[in-house]
Amino acid sequence: MISLFLSLASIGLLLSACTLPKVVSTNPDTFAQISSIYASNGTLITQVPTNIVRIPIPLSQMGSEIPKAVVAIEDRRYWKRGPIDIKSTIRAALADLSAGAVVQGGSTIEEQLVKLELGTPKRTLAEKTHEILLSLGSLAGTTKSIVLDKYLNDVYLGEGTYGIQAASLRYFSLNANQLNLVQAALLAGLINAPSAYDPILHPALALYRRNQVLNALYVNRQITKQQLSSSLSAPIQLNPSNTVVNPKLGYFSETVLNEAATLPALGSTPTQRLNLIEHGGLKIVTTEVQSQQKQAQKAVLDGIPNSANMPSGALVSINPANGAIEALVGGPGYNSGKAYSQFNMATQAQRPSGSTFKVIALAEALTQGFTAKSVFYAPKVLYVAPANHQSAWVVHNYEGEPTGYMTLLTATALSVNTVYAQLITKIGPANVVSMAHAMGIKSPLLPYNSIVLGAQPVTPLDMASVNATLADYGTYNAPYSISAIYDSSGKLIYSHALHPKQVLSPTIAATEIQILTHVMTEGTGVNASLYRPAAGKTGTGENWADAWFAGFVPQLATVVWVGYPSGEVPMIPPTTPIYVTGGSWPARIFAQYMTSALAASPIEQFRTPTSFAVAPPVPTTTSPPKVSTTVTTPSTALTNVIGMPVSLAESTLSGQGFKVSLSFAPSSEYPPGYAISQSPSPGVALVKDATIDLTVAKGTLTYPSIVVVPNLLGLTASQANETISSVSLSGSCTTNQQTGTSGANQTPQAVWEQSPIPGTQVPLGSTITCYNNP
């Protein structure tokens, strides 16, 4: 009766298995293989570090000893039966039924392979039955050799090794086909309990288990009695080698791995993605151009003195046409052992960008209607009153920067802070924040006026993305470092897709590029000159703690940062040999790298703003045009000439065929002789010979007198008021008790606060505010 029941059960299992799908592995360690990272040309850069190694080889390259030993100890009837060992399975099932749980093994090599692919052990009777069904279904039609090949490549053998080849190298420094009988027996014995029988950690237990395998080989008639006797007496002789992959990464490779960890194509969770990256045998093809990467590393090393306690450098270089990161240097050397050497300054460090941020404010200003010829007065020191919950802001120009009236082009080329401080109050910091994020800044930003001078921290990758957007005439392509990923079988599982977005008018971008070329030819960036059309911007952080150069040609955008990874350390003597500004070391690094990187590239000209003019549509029909009986008069859009000198404004309008009628009026915004308004408004379509009413600021072009604000702190109210009057300033002190401060400021009638602060340069007649104790 029992035998009949078992026969029916066996038939039922077989029938059920016919409809089972193939098993898909969910265990990341099952097929542990080394993943590799390649340059854009297919050259191997490095391998992904992992503590798990699998080196697949075909069964034909494993020699004869290993397959014999494994079959003898794990499944001695393997070659004599079908996919499931019915006898041993039924025997185990009877014992399990009697005990009410699984108490016997009985797993064949096929069943073990299924468990490996499932990734979790099955211990209940129901799970054991399911395991058998899966084995039948998944391995139906598969040859014995293929099953054994897969099993011997997937089984775990301790010390982080999966598969016979990896284990042979780990324990004996031999290929699998070089193993002798006793060596093969030792490896076969590890399958049952790789940690317990680890010959490196537990040689006595390993010897005991090896001899069990040798006896199984003898019982299975695979070796003679003489072979058994000589093998049992042989000592364990190991020759271990380190097969765990711990290659040297670099800043670019680290960036690649971080990007890969975000890709949904590699898994739905971060853990799944990380497991596949480390153990999936992936081929990751990157955007790195190896020649440029080497040139970038050399330029950063050459550009900073090689002596103790010098700052570090970072560089990011992006192809503007698609956002591909072609070179990236994140510090002094990823494997140099120096402090912060494995902190990637190119992608992880957020530092104040200084005046390189002005390119974003300039884009917003041009969008709002300012032009390269817009005129500002640039004092040496500018006091910006508190607004929108911001504190008062005192802006200084760097030593040697010009003062007086100048155009926005000149202020940009010479990086005049007080002009850009005025500009931000006109265009609005919130608008600049929006423009920054649109152009490629991913770091968080706050809408404060000081943003225009790069006071808020961003990464070099952020700024490289912004400049790539400009170089591609306002088209933003998200920066990326991975082009494609292939799985261990060579199947493409990820390919980067471009999603270009026009975030800035091409005409505006081309106009800004024209302005930024002057930085390179006559401004603060002359040290970055490339002897080909190039645009860029220098940046120097507060107290010389960060120095930047950001620039581009049509084919390549590059940003260089120099500073101390440990924090905001002033790069001034004696800490550094010179005062390090964006126009010094960063500009020279930029020039050296770009000159080398572009050596084989043709010289390209930037497009002009007028090249983006929309051409009239081409007729799509050959039908004769309809004859209109309406007479039309050609019209021209009126150019914006506000902010131009009157002579230039008149010639511009006359060149468009318009007549000009001049009038004069006082202006607090524009200097005498500059156009302050026009009617009709700019952009209106007018016929030829139309008259334009142009209003010009009247008066004589003179610079306003500048007064240095005196120090009133500690004076009595009457003394302070007398001092204010004596230097031709206005205002007086207000009585208001200072609280929470001890010392001199508690003195009766003493001035304890003033605005602007002492030393600020302000125009003659400016108002001073101060407060004194009762």
Structure characteristics:
about 775 residues, alpha+beta, Penicillin binding protein transpeptidase fold, Beta-lactamase, Trypsin Inhibitor V, Chain A, 4 domains, 30 strands, about 35% helix, elongated
Number of helices: 22
Instruction: Report, as a whole number of angstroms, the end-to-end distance.
Output: 112 Å
Find the count of extended strands (DSSP E, 2+ residues).
30
- Arrangement of strands in the largest sheet: 2-1-5-15-16
Poorly predicted regions are 1-30, 100-105, 625-632
What would CATH call the homologous superfamily of the largest domain?
Answer: DD-peptidase/beta-lactamase superfamily
CATH topology of the largest domain: Beta-lactamase
State the CATH class of the largest domain. Answer: Alpha Beta
Rg over alpha carbons: 38 Å
Shape: elongated
Describe the largest sheet.
5 strands, mixed
Region (Disordered): 729-760
GO molecular function, one term: penicillin binding
Biased composition (Polar residues): 729-749
Domain PASTA: 632-698, 703-774
